[in-house]
Amino acid sequence: MDRTEYRLGEEASAEVRLRNCSSHPIRVHELLLESRSLSFEIAGGTPAPIVYTVTRPDVFSSQHAGPWRVLLGAGRDIAVIVPIPLVRPGSHRITAVYRGAGSPDSGLRSPPVPVNVSADPGPTLVATLDLALPDRRDVSSLVIGLEPDNAPVHVMNFINLARQGFYDGQRVFRIVPDFVIQSGCPRGSGSGGPGYCLPNEHVVSRRHTRGTLSMNHPPGRPDAAGSQFFLCVKDAPSLDLPGERYTAFGQVLEGIETLDAASSIETDPKTLAPLSPVLIRRVAISAR
């Protein structure tokens, strides 16, 4: 880690280095944040420890199929630096786990690194989503409280994508009146994703109420969410039926009128795409 003291929402830069200590070359999975290669266990405090990883390929965007195997020469090493968003305050221990060398299920484990995360300036992580709506000169904002206790990996993923500018300029590609608005597709059509999938973190008791932020996934594929998300315009009990398993990971705290305005925009009757563009200008992450 680059240091041991952080504020809530900051990223720890974790450098992981893998060395071949044998006298002959070996084939290993490249160092990549992926369940067959590299993951991080973040333990300490409550609730349960976080296992930060993703899987591939993403059914929305299958061009990234890794992790690839690489030939690691005798005495050589490979390294990667992974940004880890710190989404829970308190004292934690971060352990890197590598499973890409034919190792047992437990994997190769690094010594745990202690970090302390202070709730400064506040204990709540928020995402401010700036929307450009038709016929409005000013940008309208939604302030969304993120829920790392319910869905830590989804929150960490959303923060990573937001800070990379992944969502900036994307379209709201689908509006279902009195139900949801959808965005997060890099193709602007509902057919794209980030190239990986997230482990499902559905919580039965977390209902899809008005203002809920939740990850979209293909029908019957709850472990295939990646970047596409939706916001509930009204209470949506149909999304809580057994088998749906959508992962809710945030709640609108301010700007619900912006959500209402977006949901009232006229759409194509067949595709439900807005006839006038609705754009995400920026997603900013902060703590308060």
- Count of distinct strands: 18
Largest sheet: 8 strands, antiparallel
Global morphology = globular
User: What is the N-to-C order of secondary-structure elements (H for helix, E for strand)?
Assistant: EEEEEEEEEEEEHEEEEEHE
Main structural class: mainly beta
- Average the pLDDT over all residues and give the rounded result: 92
Instruction: Kindly estimate the percentage of residues that lie in beta strands according to DSSP.
Output: 35-45%
| Major beta sheet, strand line-up | 13-14-16-15-17-12-11-18
How many separate helices? 2
For the record, the count of structural domains works out to: 2
Summarize the structure.
The protein is mainly beta and 288 residues long. 7% of the residues lie in helices and 35% in strands.
